[in-house]
Amino acid sequence: MTFASGNALTRRRLALILGETALLTLVCGAVTSFRDVLDFVATPDDGARMSIEWPRYLWRGLALTLLCQACFILQDLYDWRVTRNSNQTAVKLLESIFYAAVLMWAVHFAIDAGTSIIPPDMVAPYVNRPWTSLAALFAVLPFAHFYRLLFHWIFSAWQLHDRVLLVGSGSTARTLVDEIKRLKDPAYEVVGFVRCDVEPVLDFDVPCLGTADRLGTIAADVRADRVVVALDERRGKLPVIELLNCRLSGVRVEEAELLYERLTGKIAVQRLRPSYLVFSEGFTQGRITFTAKRGLDVLLAGFGLLLAAPIAALTALAIKIESSGPVFYGQTRVGKDGRVFTVYKFRSMRTDAEKGGPQWAAKNDRRVTRIGTILRKTRIDEIPQMWNVLRNEMSFVGPRPERPFFVEELRKQIPYYMERLIVKPGLTGWAQINYQYGSSVEDALTKLQYDLWYIKNLSIFVDLLIVLRTIKVIVLRRGAN
Hints:
By secondary structure, the chain is of the alpha/beta class.
């Protein structure tokens, strides 16, 4: 998910979130103020009437709304493939409200027990009266469901999607059509394609509207919102004048790689041209972004180590009981700019796991111990890596660090593989939440596509999104591992 200009799906998602935030803030604010409003109306003496502090209720409503929306993210309720199904949406909304209620009650308990690091008088105006807050959370349910039904109906009835005209008839064009159909993406509708005489026409389920020398006329006839150049080979075949005419007439012209990136959340490395990496937006590594990212790393890793200390102690005891050998396992990995460092984990394999040399880690690896299986599924084995984060060898979010042996092998077989080393490796990452364990060169290629997408779109917002989705993977056991 990227906020690059021209991304119709992101603009629609942003409109959904902002409208929902405003509506649910008003609903939660109204419910939490209901008791005070009744007291205000019931007071006969005007002089004795209490004042109703509406800003305080709105802030409280906003806090509850943001809590709900964090749970909505965990339940994929901003994913169009989920929200197009009304029954599935209703179930996920109910589950989200339940999770939000549990979290809200935990906050109340922490404040009442005096365990909160924030002074209670600072947060009490926003979280007091737990039963009122609970009523506000469940009042969200019908409003959120109705709002989403209305929102999607408006976009569907008014056909507020981008009409896409493809330039090309080969494998690149067919890949885009297949991805749009597979994802059931509502932001784009492929109205057809134009062909170049020198390119073969493959069989895919969209009409051929003519040849590229009539591109401008065809784009006007079908009311295309964007023209996507999807030629397998462009050298000497690009209809430059026709594309320029489309651009000057107000039709957005873009490369197939950019649309593929938006649809899949990864960069197509196999057919990637260096010019796309050079001239496309993204790959911004500003000082402010990295300073904020480092601050987030220290905060999450420091808090995570404190929170995980009891679990770490029990884990160490379990490892010792099951098998002899060290509790921790240190392994050489390649970090930012190719620097080598030692990554630390709880040992999850037998001590002789690599007596035959380095091997890929498989999903059902026989070298993994019984305790190790649990540690890997819950990611408890990676708790010690928070120490690597504090030492600035890793980031909380980034491409997973690989071993020097595999880096050397993969860079010979996969183009652009070394580009993943321009940022610090991470505890979790975009590839980890979107793809399973890698155990082959093909898996490494797919994960590289996700890693390059992350590097291109690196931001604090994307990091927070990945952290939330990682929590979903660990706690709810849904998604990639």
